[in-house]
Specification:
The complex is a heterodimer of chains A (351) and B (584). Chain A is mostly beta strands. Chain A has three domains: 143 residues, Glucose Oxidase, domain 1 (3-Layer(bba) Sandwich), CATH 3.50.30; 72 residues, Beta Barrel (OB fold (Dihydrolipoamide Acetyltransferase, E2P)), CATH 2.40.50; 60 residues, SH3 type barrels, CATH 2.30.30.30. In chain A, strands 3, 5, 12, 13, 14, 15, 16, 17, 18, 19, 20, 21 and 22 form a 13-stranded mixed beta sheet that branches. In chain A, strands 2-30-24-25-28-29 form a six-stranded mixed beta sheet, with no helix packed on it. The longest helix of chain A has 9 residues. Chain A is elongated, with a radius of gyration of 27 Å. Chain B has 16 helices and 22 strands. In chain B, a hairpin with a 2-residue loop joins strand 2 and strand 3. The longest helix of chain B is centred in the middle third of the chain and has 23 residues. By secondary structure, chain B is an alpha/beta fold. In chain B, 32% of the residues lie in helices and 24% in strands. Chain B folds into three domains: 86 residues, ATPase, nucleotide binding domain (Nucleotidyltransferase, domain 5, 2-Layer Sandwich), CATH 3.30.420; 140 residues, Flavodoxin domain (Rossmann fold); 233 residues, no CATH class. The chains are: A mainly beta (351), B alpha/beta (584). Chains A and B meet through strand 6 and strand 27 of A and helix 3, helix 4, helix 10 and helix 11 of B.
Chain lengths: 351, 584
């Protein structure tokens, strides 16, 4: 049976596509070395539109109104600019309510694009640009440790990682956070209250890596301007030992925290990348694996959500579970030495 | 065009669900179509595979292992038609529910008329209405444009106007939709279904034709103000849905080609079967089908040839679970649990399960939570579906569910239940049927597949339904009554085919069973007490023929509507007792 994979790897080659949501201009070049905060592409983005009903305002037919238009597609008009002027002794003038660019004109109407802002796409990880995707972005390759999570708030930052989680089931509280952590990415444990998130914002941390988050804190965590990644899930879950070991042993290193939201269809996941120097390029992570004895696996469902173990044997046929269900299952030896029976659909391979 | 029995013998059908893909083989055995075997595999719409055809090939491979027959060639391509060597199949059909819930915008004139029709129409596919634009919309056209650009809908369903009626108002509403589409990148433009004033077709084509990823037309859902006919538009919407999925999900085009265009949304295929069954059964009661899966909960009902279909992704057991709390409370879900579970544990469960929709309960506590959620999802779905049931549907009381016989139930939450008793109790709790009802479990999830197969071979569904491929759980008698716990509400006598008898006295708040094995029949004599009504009128007695099932004849004496005790300890004890009565 094919196994879902989560990447928690001490050294691997990481290739990531970084693309604008709309067409724009790619500023990075092929083979360019980029830092995580370097802008690799940018685009102009109109916040709102204004539709001016010229025919209605001048009380004319659509063809008549179109003949009186004084602007064309592509024109940038200031506020109060003439869009059309009527006829007669006292001609009525139709003006722009605000500054904008004409993006459609006709049918007795003019559509303006206003409030343009620029959108900058940052590299998100240190590495080399190995491909330029025309008008959209780049593909970047780097080498280092990779730790993926299950939830992210969509932000991205780079900074030195400070470990405040003495053990995998530690709880991050506001009392642990102070100004000395300004500009750092904090390796915390579980987060159970809003005060901790607010204090993290006040002391200007660059990011939070949490084992779990109370679901009630999700709206607040989503609004935070710094990246937050959850490694294991929601509620009070300790950090899985594989992620904790790798993260805690890399404390004080510069890390990139890309808290990209988990998207099951594209495969995007929040992740921590720790760039490491190498002489030879390590193998990239596997995308697909079949379940097999000897694999390191993680539980995705109770009991022991997030716990890491080793797949000992794949059981033949269907196995009766304590829930009363029958399903393909495996014997898994936990880190405590205990062997448990787990349905295969509740496992993911760590690798 | 239906294929005759002689031209095409074997038919392979696949159902591509959010979590599981099933492959089902039907073939002719002794001159009749039969369900032969099923194979399954995890669905592969999601990363890292991102190709639904991979899961289909894996499910077919599993079916090959089960049957010992070859359906795929060495390139893993379907072999069709069947070869002299015995490899391959004669026909192939597919149903599809995998993929993210589509974002839909409904457009119409009046909120209570055309917009309501558009909403009902949209509920026939796996879609969520994200905006509604009508005649009385207070927004300026440019605000509508910006709203659409933010929402990025996958589809727009347009209704409104009677055939040949005024078109100017609808044209004004469509303008900002055209402009918003024009501003979107070509690959992100929504598909549009126009199911309004038929005289506007040329106009709509010239307004929107070049500005959508696909423009579909169907007969008007409201040709006149008093008439609503969703079926032709639902058929076109099903086509639109598959087209959107072809763009979104790799591999759908491969399966569409294998099936020669016979791929349908799972919900629509189920609705098609219900329309057929309601004509076949033709009783004064309606027939009901429910399906609880990871993608959503589906409720299809048939009333003398008329049918309703509701697909509710918001009540699915997968990635949409956290959104369930927009429709109910944690306490409401926990009232169904036989175990003492805290609201915090349940809240964490909803969010955690949404990360891993394909996982299954391994512990008793996890199973209790899972089934409590399934009950609440089904309960909310039937409440939503009831809004669209015909007002003249036969019922004992307008506040209760209309009379249905049979009720067909499928989907992972039911077909994977450890025992038929657990499935039955889930259905009785959530649906609260009244009167006398046969409960049939679609443990192989065949109903949508038969709906899809009907488009290819109209004999097959009839013969498979008659072949016993579905599991009869039993006949359920549910008196409509409210009285004190322990009060006697019904006396029942079951006369078996051999003349022997079994009797039961039903007290309020209890469940009782009289055994009647599958394939056997009997006559049931019912004598309600007081004002209890089992369908013969309050307090009236009667006699009916019944057929057996896995549990026999089940008497649900818990009253309608079901009012669970507010004391949590007593409630949990009762739920455990009911579980025990139905076999644990």
């Amino acid at each position: 049976m094919q196994a879902p994979l989560i990447h928690i790897l001490p050294l691997t080659t990481i290739t990531r596509e970084r693309l604008l949501p709309v067409a724009g201009r790619v500023t990075a070049r092929l083979n360019q070395k980029v830092g995580p905060t370097d802008v690799v592409a940018e685009a102009a983005w109109a916040r709102e539109h204004v539709l001016i009903d010229v025919a209605g305002a001048l009380r004319l037919s659509i063809p008549a109104a179109d003949r009186l238009l004084r602007c064309k597609v592509g024109d940038t008009l200031p506020a109060s600019a003439e869009v059309a002027v009527g006829t007669g002794l006292f001609p009525k003038t139709v003006r722009t309510p605000k500054e904008g660019k004409v993006i459609a004109a006709g049918g007795g109407q003019v559509l303006l694009e206003t409030g343009e802002t620029s959108l900058q796409l940052r590299a998100g990880l240190p590495g080399n640009v190995i491909e330029v995707v025309s008008e959209r972005g780049v593909v970047i390759k780097t080498v280092g440790a990779l730790i993926q999570g299950v939830w992210g708030n969509g932000r991205i930052e780079t900074g030195v990682m400070v470990n405040l989680a003495e053990k995998p089931d530690g709880v991050l509280t506001s009392a642990r956070l102070d100004v000395s952590m300004r500009g750092s990415i904090i390796l915390g444990g579980m987060c159970k209250d809003a005060e901790t998130l607010q204090t993290a914002a006040e002391v200007s941390v660059r990011g939070l890596i949490l084992s779990s988050l109370f679901p009630s804190l999700l709206p607040l965590a989503s609004k935070m301007r710094f990246p937050i990644m959850v490694t294991d899930g929601f509620g009070s879950l300790p950090m899985n030992s594989a992620a904790y070991r790798l993260l805690s042993t890399n404390a004080k290193r510069e890390v990139t925290l890309n808290a990209e939201p988990y998207d099951r269809y594209t495969g995007a996941r929040p992740e921590v990348i720790i760039p490491l120097p190498v002489t030879t390029e390590p193998t990239p992570p596997m995308d697909v694996e079949d379940f097999a004895a000897g694999q390191t696996v993680r539980m995705r469902r109770p009991p022991s959500v997030g716990a890491i173990g080793t797949l000992v044997t794949l059981r033949p046929g269907l196995t009766l579970l304590p829930s009363g269900l029958r399903a393909p299952a495996a014997d898994v030896k936990m880190e405590t030495g205990e062997t448990v029976i787990v349905p295969l659909v509740n496992l993911e391979v760590v690798g | 065009m239906p294929v005759s029995l002689i031209e095409g013998d074997s038919l392979l059908a696949v159902d591509i669900g959010a979590a599981t893909t099933r492959a089902v083989l039907f073939d002719v055995v002794e001159g009749q179509y039969r369900f032969v075997a099923a194979g399954h595999a995890p669905s592969t719409a999601e990363a890292p595979f991102k190709d639904v055809s991979e899961g289909v090939r894996n499910a077919i491979s599993h079916l090959q292992n089960v049957t010992g027959r070859a359906f795929l060639d060495t390139d893993r391509t379907l072999v069709t038609p069947s070869q002299p060597s015995g490899a391959g199949v004669d026909a192939f059909v597919a149903t599809l529910s995998a993929g993210p819930t589509l974002k839909a915008v409904v457009v119409g004139l009046l909120a209570d008329v055309s917009l309501e029709s558009a909403r009902r129409l949209t509920e026939t596919v796996y879609a969520r209405v994200v905006d509604s634009i009508g005649l009385n919309d207070p927004r300026r056209p440019d605000e509508v444009i910006d709203g659409l650009l933010t929402l990025h809908p996958d589809m727009v369903v347009v209704t409104g106007g009677t055939d040949g009626g005024a078109s100017r108002s609808l044209q004004k509403i469509l303008e900002p939709i055209g402009l918003a589409s024009y501003l979107m990148p070509a690959e992100k433009r929504p598909s549009i279904l126009f199911a309004g004033n038929q005289k506007m077709e040329t106009e709509v084509k010239s307004m929107l034709g070049t500005l959508t990823s696909s423009l579909h037309f169907s007969p008007n859902v409201r040709p006149s103000l008093e008439t609503e006919d969703l079926e032709p538009a639902a058929r076109e919407l099903a086509r639109l849905f598959v087209n959107v999925r072809k763009r979104q999900l790799k591999g759908v085009d491969v399966i569409d080609a294998w099936s020669n265009g016979h791929i349908l949304p799972t919900g629509y295929a189920t609705g098609r079967m219900m329309r057929y069954l309601s004509r076949v059964y033709g009783s004064t009661k309606g027939i009901l089908s429910v399906d609880i899966g990871a993608s959503g909960t589906l409720v299809a009902a048939g009333f003398k040839g008329k049918s309703t279909l509701g697909v509710y992704p918001q009540f699915g057991l997968g990635e949409n679970l956290p959104g369930l709390l927009n429709h109910t409370t944690l306490e409401n879900i926990l009232r169904w649990s036989p175990l003492d579970i805290s609201v915090g544990v349940l809240r964490d469960y909803l969010y955690q399960k949404s990360l891993y929709p394909s996982t299954i309960p391994a512990t008793r506590e996890d199973q209790a939570i899972s089934q409590a959620i399934a009950r609440e999802c089904l309960h909310l779905s039937i409440q939503a579906a009831r809004r669209d049931f015909p007002s003249n549907a036969a019922s004992l009381n307008s506040r209760l569910l209309p009379l249905f016989d049979p009720i067909l139930a499928g989907g992972g939450a039911l077909s994977d239940s450890p025992t038929p008793g657990q499935s039955l109790l889930l259905l009785l709790d959530a649906l609260q049927p009244v009167g006398v009802t046969t409960i049939i479990l679609d443990q192989n999830n065949l109903l949508p597949i038969l709906g899809a197969a009907a488009g290819r071979n109209n004999l097959l569904p009839v013969q498979v339904l008659d072949s016993g491929a579905f599991m009869s759980v039993g006949t359920v008698v549910s008196p409509a009554v409210q009285t004190a716990y322990g009060a006697q509400i019904l006396r029942a006598r079951l006369t078996y085919e051999d003349g022997t008898e079994a009797r039961s006295e039903l007290k309020f708040g209890t469940i009782e069973i009289l055994p009647l094995p599958s394939g056997h029949g009997g006559t049931l004599t019912l004598q309600p007490s007081g004002h209890a009504d089992v369908g013969f009128g309050p307090g009236r007695s009667g006699q009916i023929p019944v057929t057996g099932g896995a549990l026999g004849v089940v008497f649900d004496g818990r009253g309608r509507p079901l009012d669970l005790p507010s004391d949590p300890v007593r409630r949990r004890e009762l739920i455990k007792k009911w579980h025990w009565t139905l076999g644990g």
